[in-house]
Amino acid sequence: MTPIRIRRFHAHDALEHIHAPQELLAALYANRGLSTPEDAAPGLAALAPMTALRGLGQAVVLLAQRIEAGDHILVVGDYDADGATGSAVAVRGLRALGAARVSFLVPSRFDNGYGLSPAVVEAAHALDADLIITVDNGISSVSAVQRARELGIPVLVTDHHLPGSQLPDAAAIVNPNQAGCEFPSKHLAGVGVMFYLLAALRGHLRETGWLGTERPEPNLADLLDLVALGTVADVVTLDRNNRILVEQGLRRIRAGRCCAGLSALLQVGGRDPARVTTSDLGFVVAPRLNAAGRLEEMSLGVECLLTDDPARALEVAQVLDGLNRRRREIEANMKDQAELLLETLSLDGASLPPALCLYGEDWHQGVSGIVASRMRERYHRPVIAFADAGDGQLRGSARSVEGLHMRDAIDRVERHHPGLIERFGGHAMAAGLTLRADRLDAFRDAFVEAVRAQLGDIPAQPEVCSDGALPAALMTLETAELLRMAGPWGRGFPEPRFDGIFEILTARLVGEHHLKLRVAPTGGAPIEAIGFGLGEHLPMARGQMRLAYRLDVNDYRGVRSAQLMLDHLQAPESNTTEPGLD
Predict the structure, then answer these.
(1) Fewer CB atoms inside 10 A, N or C side of the chain?
(2) Whether 385 contacts 396, CB under 8 Å
(3) CA distance 526 to 482
(4) pTM over 0.85, yes/no
């Protein structure tokens, strides 16, 4: 295993003289580049202007014409949580704006693959679609858009993925990452792009008189619960714009103003909507929603988010919960096989290649991305996990590490070895690709070389970033509650993490793989700690240890207390805390 080092934001312990939770929060925000806590999420009025989105005006006119004509608008989404929430936002929003005929279609992961394809266009034609709107896909669907043109169906592409060398010949394209787009937030999720489109459309329909006394103007902010969910689930960078969207969505969920489906998913996940956090959205709701697209069809997930019937929403949420339990079983088996594969190759952490390509004959396509994530976390290498897609093809799910742009790495393979890859797409941290099974070995070699070109032979040492040593007097329920409800935390705006020396009082395994500790900070009272997936460190959990952790709330049978959520532990003398993070 590659050793992990703890790295702090500052050379000195910037937290040692802080005595109040609010002071602590201000210091944590300052570590993330904010001068005041109010800067964390300043409100909807501070969102980046929609006028900066290239193609938005053209898209709005096209949509308005189709709505006023009563045409059939078909939303084609993706089979992940971003695509599902984006599809639900599109359908809900268009109906609220007066569209009489709106339906959705989510391509099957297993039958159609990712995004708008010629086969999906044929299905849209069979459904008598007058306009196709893509959500969270479409920017690489050159042949599919061409087929739609041949059939007389205009396509409006809304996407956030990086474009390839050729754009589809669509009626309009809205994507903050397309060339020439001056929109300042390049990290919008697919659902965020759709929300912006609906907001611009509402303004246009207001000006034309479509919205008025007979057709009241809807409050599109009611869709922000789903925008928050999709944004968090897609693990996009929480820049200022995305933090506003997520924070406003969390406000509505906590106030009991979320849709029935999201409320039901929180219920089956055992979470209180009034205390919901980005962590709950990302690790409780999103996996249950994603389970539909991973194991069956994401249309079930979209249905959950569209129904206004609480009983039906709970019924579907329970089905999704069952699918997620089955997904976890499949994932555990695949992960064990991946570990065995690496052991069989007689590799250790020091001699691993700079990138890993893994393949299992009976691996599940829908779960390979999660396995790639787990292997990346364990070995700190970019990983592609391949599964059999039938017809002699393999479908790979790629996950990257900081410092490697995954899509660029795969694109380098395509440029240097034309024809080796059938198709691919994605962004910096995740991507997907398809190739013929007999080309796996050649691709593995080419991919390793592409990663080596970006990272060198040995990837950078993995780090756990820390805000510093939390004073023992602040390890309280009050502080934990404040940090939990602050933020919103996520990629690019990380949840506060601390490190320090603790005395290990007791240590045991819970649930086979999790490390349960009772620890005492220097000069402080004992506190409970839990390290999920850290059970292998039980033998070393004794005496004094340096812990890297997050302060959270443990709610057990209605009793709430502060606890440490362990991310890493090491011997005190092996501490490698270093300053210098930006």
Answers:
(1) C
(2) yes
(3) 20
(4) yes
